[in-house]
Amino acid sequence: MAGKYKLAFIVVSLLTVLAVGGVAYAIYGLGVDSHVEIVTPTPSPPAPEIKLKVYQDDACTIPCTFVEWGTMEQGQSKTKIPAFYVKNIGEVNVIVGNGTSIDFGQMNLWFWNGSGWEETLSVDIGENCKVKGTLSINSDALVSDKSFEIVITAIPS
Predict the structure, then answer these.
(1) 152 domain-assigned
(2) Is residue 47 situated within a structural domain?
(3) Domain range spanning residue 109?
(4) Confidence of residue 22 (pLDDT cuts 50, 70, 90)
(5) pLDDT of residue 3
(6) Pairwise CA distance, residues 136 & 39, whole Å
C-alpha cells in the first residue's frame, strides 16, 4: 500500500510544481465509437481502344497483309505511293507515326494530310489516310532475302 501512496504523492507534487510555475497540463482522452465499411474499389472505365487496319485501296475494302518491295540493290532506295492506307477503326482519334526499325537500312513512312506528306498525322475515328513508304537499303547490307514488319504507331490525339 505504501507504494500506491508514494506514487500518488509524486504525481500530486509534479502537478503542484507545474501549476505553481504557471503552467498546468491536463491529459484528457475521449473515446468515440466509429464504423467503416470497406468495399472493392469501383473500377475505372476502360481506356478508349486504339485500333487501326491497313488496306490496299482508298475505299478500305481490300485488306493489306503484305507490301512487296521487289528486288533492290545495296545502297538503293525505293518509294511506294501509296504503300497502303491506314484506317482508324478504334474508339478515339489518333495520331499515327512510323515505328519501323530494320537492321539493313531505313524504312520511312509519310502520311497524306490532303495537301502534303507529314511524318505524323491525326486520323479521326472512321477516317483513313494514304501512306507513302520509302525503303533505303544500306550500301553494306548483306545480300539476302529480307522480311520485316512495318510498324505504325498510334497515340490518342
Answers:
(1) yes
(2) no
(3) 52-156
(4) low
(5) 53
(6) 58
The DSSP bridge pattern shows strands 152-156 and 128-137 to be unpaired
- Report whether pLDDT(128) > 80: yes
| Torsion over CA: 87, 91, 94, 100 (sign) | negative
pLDDT tens digit string along 43-58? 998 889 999 999 999 9
Contact 136, 104 (CB under 8 A): no
CATH number, residue 120: 2.60.40
Residues paired with residue 135 on neighbouring β-strands, in sequence order: 78, 107
In the predicted model, is pLDDT for residue 18 greater than 50?
no
Domain-embedded: residue 26: no
Contacts 24+ apart (CB under 8 A), 67-75: 67/133, 67/150, 69/135, 72/135, 72/137, 73/137, 74/137, 74/138, 74/139, 74/140, 74/141, 74/143, 75/137, 75/138, 75/139
The total of structural domains in the chain comes to 1
Helix (H) or strand (E) segment spanning residue 53 = strand 52-55
Buried-state track 78-107, b at ≥16 Cβ within 10 A, e below 16? eeeebbbbbbbebebbbebbbebebebbeb
Is 68 contained in some domain?
yes
Largest CA distance in the chain: 108
